[in-house]
Amino acid sequence: MRANTIVMIVLACVFGMLAVVFANFWLASQRNALARGNEVPSDTVVVAAVPLKFGDTLSEDKLREIAWPVGAVPAGAFKTIKDVLAGNGTRQALQAISTNEPVFASKITGAGQRATLSAVLTEGMKAVSIRVNDVLGVAGFVFPGDRVDILLTRTTNDSGVAKSFVDVLLQSVKVLAVDQVADESKDSPTVVKAVTVEVSTKDAQKLTLAAGAGQLSLALRQAAGNKGETTERVTVADLSGDTPEDVAKRQAELDRQAAEEAARKQADQKIDGLAKAVERVGSQIDQMSKTKPVTVVAAAPQAQPVKEVIKYVQPEPPKQATVGVFRGIKLETYEVPRQD
Question: Has domain 37-115 been given CATH number 3.30.565.10?
Fold first, then answer.
């Protein structure tokens, strides 16, 4: 056997033995680390032993305790099952709780309290329901726990011209229930008629007023998109690429048509008034023609007694006098002024 071969065999044996020694040393150090880890003080936390949904009653068979490092117990968690079930009456789940998920006080009702919508409300908030349909309700894809924007569509009559527009009424509103279902674990879309949302008192007033002022619709937000954004009113003019001049011309044409329509209606009203007046006169004439004439006999005037008055008037004396003069046997007469 050659010398080089013997040297290689010896070196291989040495390196193999060193590898075994180092491996045993590393394994021993890992066992010591695990032993030290087991010596860390631990506590317990109550988790769900089975999946829980909204309204499920809590019991010992649905809960279990697991080890949890001391000082790292989440706020609102329970350490023992006895703490969860303490008090008079049962407790129910207010939200969906997965298996091995810690049971928090905010996700269950108080002792003897029912799992109602009022128990889910945040302090100071109100629950308001709005009517939707298969389209306005985002085709039934809105579930309890989602965030939505509420849009208001209105149509106003300005000087006889109808104008439609849409405003974003509220943003990032939490959905509490769809119809009468408040279970957040619901995952199948269904057509609903009403959606209940969680809003402040002022926003509740806005929603109540808006329900009668126009049509409400929902816009589903991203699950983590709770941040508000700047919005603006959208009108019919925004649906096309018209310039302000085009909009002004179209508005002027609409105003002109509205003025013509108003004038036509006013003229029609006058014509209708005249026609009704003529009809009334004609009916009165027809009624008079159908009435039989009545002979009216006037009473003869009574003779008034005549009172006779006799008055003597002295005649005026003549201004001339007749004088006769005989000339022989012939009588001649002369008219001479009368001497009084």
Answer: no
